[in-house]
Specification:
Elements (H helix, E strand, L loop, with lengths): L1 E8 L3 H12 L4 E5 L8 H5 L1 H13 L3 H24 L4 E5 L1 E4 L4 E6 L2 E12 L3 E3 L13 E2 L1 H5 L7 E5 L3 H13 L2 E5 L11 H13 L3 E3 L4 E6 L5 E5 L4 E4 L1 E4 L3 E3 L32 E3 L10 H16 L14 E3 L5 E5 L2 H6 L4 E7 L4 H6 L5 E7 L5 E7 L3 H13 L4 H6 L11 H4 L2
Helix pairs in contact: 1-8, 3-4, 3-6
Bound molecules: flavin-adenine dinucleotide and nicotinamide-adenine-dinucleotide.
The site of nicotinamide-adenine-dinucleotide (NAD) has 25 residues, from helix 6 and strand 18.
Protein name: FAD-containing oxidoreductase
Family: Belongs to the class-I pyridine nucleotide-disulfide oxidoreductase family.
Cofactor: FAD
């Protein structure tokens, strides 16, 4: 039996950050990762970084084969850096194998034929999430159905790409693959895409996708998938329509990666989303075990996983003043072309909360920088409290939205009134300076 001060299951963002903190404190740390290719975790190997690398190249008009090569080089470099970052620490041991719980105290690691057990004074579960595959007839048998990891690892560009699910991943991949020249069809069961977003933005995004040649099918449910000899794969909808593709991407959400952990051997409980339940300090129902990142079944972002590491840091090394309740104003971006980003409330949410509000809408075509770059696409919208002038929310669709949203988030976190952004001195001509007008 191997014994450690700290065991981290899964090489996620929170875990790899904490491994360094614990090691600097002289603690012995075991990091257990089931996939040898995943040093550094999901984000750098198969998610944020490779997809955004492809996205940048698709906008530039790079040939897919060259973009694919650059994607692989970027991943290789970050993977190696991440591996070395932990491997060079004297008190960190890395094990490539799948970890599961034998009981609350003991873990078993399976690496090929090999098995060994470990005990940790503290255990951190950071196993991330995995694609949720819908129950569609023929989906498992088809040779042309991929999840986001498998599709981005295809060395060739599918000419006709069907994407099931128009959420975060579906929209990003639609933009990327259409940019490279695939004929993309988005198939979404919901009545509209981005249904929780501002209507002005939702409409502008949909128009832009269509303008780019992406077909958007809403209120469309797939009833079966069938491979066709010499012609890819056929999708049949519940309404009886048939579509032919060379590849299908499943982008219908991601579920917490808990199956391999054998939690039924422990007193660790799950929450309503099927993730691991924790208290506000990320402690599970077993005292010495904590859960971090996607595996908690809540927000699924690299930066929330990193923020989970901050909570643990504050809990173990600080004055315990930071926890899930203190986390505020989570921004998010969808990396379509141009990008969309949001923080805080939409107009509808503010009205539903009985707030007295005003809104400002600013088309990108009215922004000086947009004329400099020649990219007039998009619209920004702000929701502001009428009397207090408090910033309630901002939804930005346009170039640099993913960067600018962080300024609004900071202002909102510090409860700055809209007048601060309205009167702020920003460099010119930039996209950020338009916050002056947006928060008028
Ligand atoms: C295509 C795509 C694009 C995305 N783009 C963005 C983006 O642009 N920005 C953003 O913020 N977020 C993005 N996300 C979400 C982001 O990738 C995740 O929220 C984040 O990586 C989750 O990190 P984590 O710390 O929970 O764990 P992960 O980084 O997911 O790490 C979990 C690790 O645990 C391992 N593991 C699982 N089970 C076991 C076990 N039993 N034993 C040992 N190891 C195990 C897995 O192999 C994995 O390496 C994207 C996701 C996808 C799929
Ligand atoms: N830029 C980013 O930060 C980023 C990028 C990618 C992924 N992510 C994270 O990954 C998570 C998972 O992304 P996702 O896009 O898989 O999930 P999602 O929840 O964002 O979207 C899933 C979509 O699939 C639709 N859907 C579900 N079942 C369907 C079916 N059978 N047929 C057709 N449509 C169906 C849903 O209505 C929804 O619109 C996101 O929630 C996000 O947190 C973040």
């Amino acid at each position: 039996m191997l014994k450690y001060d700290v065991i981290i299951i899964g090489w996620g963002k929170a875990g790899k950050t904490l491994a360094k903190t614990f090691s600097a404190d002289g603690k012995t740390v075991a990091v257990i990762e089931r996939d040898e290719k995943m040093a550094g975790g999901t984000c750098i190997n198969v998610a944020c970084i490779p997809t955004k690398t492809l996205s940048v190249d698709s906008v530039k008009g790079t040939d897919y084969v060259d973009a694919f090569e650059r994607r692989n080089l970027v991943v290789k470099k970050l993977n190696e850096t991440n591996y070395q970052n932990l491997a060079t620490e004297e008190t960190i041991d890395i094990y490539f194998g799948e970890a599961s719980f034998k009981n609350d105290r003991e873990l078993i690691v399976r690496a090929g034929e090999e098995r060994f057990s470990l005990k940790g004074a503290l255990v951190f579960i950071n196993t991330g999430s995995e694609s949720r595959i819908p129950n569609i007839r023929g989906i498992m048998e088809s040779k042309h159905v991929y999840d986001s990891t498998q599709l981005q690892e295809l060395p060739f560009l599918p000419k006709r790409l069907g994407i099931i699910g128009a959420g975060n991943i579906g929209l990003e991949f639609a933009s990327i693959y259409s940019g490279f020249g695939s004929k993309v069809t988005l198939i979404e069961t919901g009545a509209e895409i981005l249904k929780h977003e501002e209507p002005e933005i939702r409409i502008a995004v949909q128009e832009e996708l269509v303008q780019q040649g992406i077909e958007v099918l809403t209120e469309t449910a797939v009833s079966s998938i069938q491979d066709v000899t010499n012609d890819g794969v056929k999708v049949i909808t519940k309404a009886g329509d048939t579509f032919n593709f060379d590849a299908i991407l499943i982008a219908t959400g991601r579920k917490p990666a808990i199956e391999s952990l054998r939690l039924w051997n422990t007193a660790i409980k799950l929450n309503e989303s099927g993730g691991i339940w924790t208290n506000d300090y990320l402690r599970t129902t077993v005292d010495h075990v904590f859960a971090l990142g996607d595996v908690r079944g809540e927000e699924q972002f690299t930066y929330t996983s990193l923020d989970d590491a901050r909570i643990i840091d504050s809990y173990l090394y600080g004055n315990q003043d930071y926890n899930l309740k203190s986390r505020q104003n989570l921004p998010y971006s969808i990396f379509i072309n141009p990008p969309f980003a949001r923080v805080g409330m939409t107009e509808a949410e503010a009205v539903a909360a009985n707030l007295d509000i005003r809104t400002n809408i600013l088309p990108v075509a009215k922004m000086p920088r947009a004329h400099v770059t020649g990219d007039l696409r998009g619209v920004f919208k702000a929701v502001i409290a009428k009397h207090s002038n408090q910033i309630l929310g901002a939804s930005l669709f346009g170039a640099q939205a993913h960067e600018i949203i962080n300024i609004v988030k900071l202002a909102k976190d510090y409860n700055l009134p809209a007048s601060v952004l309205h009167n702020q001195v920003f460099t010119h001509p930039t996209m950020a300076e338009n916050l002056n007008d947006l928060f008028k």
